[in-house]
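BUG: 3D viewer hangs when loading the predicted structure for this chain

Environment: internal workstation, default settings.
Expected: structure renders.
Actual: progress bar stalls at 90%.

Input used:
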Amino acid sequence: MTEKKKIEIPHIFAILALLALVVAVITYIIPAGEYVRIEGADGRAIIDPNSFHLIEKTPTTFLQYLKSFPQGLVDSGWLFVLTFTIGGAFGVIKKAINVSALIKMAASKFGRFDIFMIISLMIIIALIDSFIGMCELTIVYVPILLPLILALGYDSITCCGLVLGASVVGFASAMTNPFTTAVAQKICNLPLYSGISFRFGILIVMLIISIIYVIWYSQRVKKAPEKSFIYQEDKETKKIVLSDETENVKLTTRESIAGFITLAGFILTVFGVIKWAWDMPEMGGCFVGIAIFSGIISGMNGNEICNNLIEGFKEVLVGALVIGVARAITVIMSNANITDTIVYYLSSVIQSVPASITSIGMLIFQTIFNFFVPSGSGQATIVMPLMSPLAELCGITQQTAVLAFQFGDGLSNVVYPVSGYMMATLAVGHVPYNKWLKFILPLFAILTIVSAIILVVAQSIQLGPF
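Structure tokens produced before the viewer hung:
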């Protein structure tokens, strides 16, 4: 009896390179075009919805295709650097602190209440993203939580699912997200943060669904570890983030102080993002400080700190590179000037959809377009000047149009490989993208269907003020 040949899944670099090549070929088919940009009241450049015009075609040559990859690395610079910074910092932290002792102490505290811990963490993360929309913090949460999640008998996907699953529903509900809700509502001339009570209800519904899904998967893995989507990969991950210390190991005074420094630096990072509007440079700086001070306090010399930083860099190398490689797709589209053309034709399709399901058509449009422009505020300034008059023409309330944008922009951020923060989070969590899709696609489908139902409800009650 002949043994069946195992199907080998292509490497993520091969998948992204092929996808970029497809987009490059498409630039020979889709005409180049652009909208005129005008400066809004807040200084942002928004498009004039009636100004679309074709321009000279600039298809991607083979050399430009090759150049898009290094250019993608440059364009994703800060996210690329932040991933390395966090990876390097944790390379030092693992040597500065007896992580095994800390994990065992934490596991003994949370062992009986692990489900409650998952629920609490997801609520906190979702609220942070719903209020401030700083989804890049997921890159910070994962390396902190991963050792504990693994020690409790779960897998790496549980950790990333907990963090990203909570983040995405917070970002999609966006009660006061300044990057999406505020920008979109300003363009639609809606009162700032109007409809917040309705969005709070959305957050509750979506968060419950996400929590149930993550708990279902986590308990399945805990009862039968071999059912994990990442069972083989986690054997190596556990060697990296967990150690085989004896049961009676304890933290030394130096390690305790270094641990306190690490915790204080993490809290400062989150507080700085929320209170002082810190971005990736400040976040990266905090982790550099954590690495230096925890290393010195634990007794490391300069060479040891640097060597441990390098070890940390190695652990996230592939994931960090994926961020830049995925960005090549956006680079190709931008250089070929086809992004605005895609917006124009997709919006034209929506106009032909029956008015009763126009809001769902808007959701589909926003979800598709988020692949091409993964930036929330960037997408708002491009598409909302089109969606706002289109909604008025079709009898859709402006608030419903904003919701369609939030859902389409927010939910697909945990699916598309062009989502830099997601790829960076998977990198520090040691989760391959193809295994992540196996986990997240069912949840994404459920949340998208729920979003469509919510949009129908919002339109039926004429969610406003208009």
